[in-house]
Amino acid sequence: MPSPIFHSVAAVAAAAGCKKPGTSLSWPLCALLVLAANLPDLDLAPAAFLGTPTMLYHHGFTHSFGFGLLAGLLLSLVPLRRFKWRHRACLLVPVGLSHPFFDLFNSNGSLECRQFYDCGQPLAWPLLSRKWGTLYPVFGDIVLPPGILSWFSADNLRFITWESCLTVLVVAAVFAMRALVLKLRGVDPRAKYPR
Ligand SMILES: [Zn+2]
Q1: Residue 154 belongs to some domain of the structure
Q2: Is the residue at 31 inside a domain?
Q3: Separation of 176 CA from ligand 1 center, angstroms?
Q4: CA distance 175 to 77
Q5: How many domains is the chain partitioned into structurally?
Q6: 83 pairs with which residues across the strands?
Q7: Ligand 1 center–CA 3 separation, angstroms
């Protein structure tokens, strides 16, 4: 699965790419973005604290678009200065939906995994029990055995390094697209605009 670092950086970068020129993201908004981006992985908590196998609870209903939508809407109810509800929802709902989308590209949903286990993301829960995944995983297979300390294995660190490269690519792509859109619209990204 993508690590919390990838989910968090992708969420904040996307918000930074969407913000108006001359404005800035606030720390409370960034905290909500990080929370929305990682909330589905709360289903790892039983493995971390009870020592139960990760697969027992992971990639359950929290990895559906329905949960992402609900989480984004609920978090957007948190009042923030300078950001109206609709602005918060426009950022937090897509970020909530992004988690199950990115998790589609890990080995949990690969054909190999699905041949033997009930792998994949239940994107359409509660309407359908079917799970989805990709034939070509992009993210490494980060393994989280019982006990937090054993999460820092050599394999996991190697996959996180690969994922860091992907993270840099995503951030670069977001800012390249932002620069292109602003240029096409004739907007000066350094100009101060009224909020
Ligand atoms: Zn996940």
Answers
A1: yes
A2: yes
A3: 27
A4: 28
A5: 1
A6: 80
A7: 8
Residue 193 falls inside a structural domain: no
- Give 103 Cα–ligand 1 centroid separation in angstroms: 6
Separation of CA 1 and ligand 1 centre (Å): 6
Residue 62 CA, ligand 1 centroid: distance in Å = 8
**Predicted model pTM:** 0.82
> Separation of 76 CA from ligand 1 center, angstroms?
21
Distance 140 CA to ligand 1 centre (A): 13
Q: 8: domain range? A: 4-185
Q: Which residue has the tokens 């809407």?
A: 73
User: CA torsion, points 186, 187, 190, 195, in degrees to nearest 10?
Assistant: 170
Per-position pLDDT tens, the chain of length 195: 678 889 999 999 999 998 888 788 899 999 999 999 999 998 887 766 776 666 667 888 999 999 999 999 999 999 998 889 999 999 999 999 999 999 988 876 666 676 666 778 899 998 998 888 887 788 877 776 667 777 788 888 888 888 889 999 999 999 999 999 999 988 876 666 554
Assess contact for 80 and 28: CB atoms under 8 A.
yes
Helix (H, G, I), strand (E, B) or coil at 3: coil
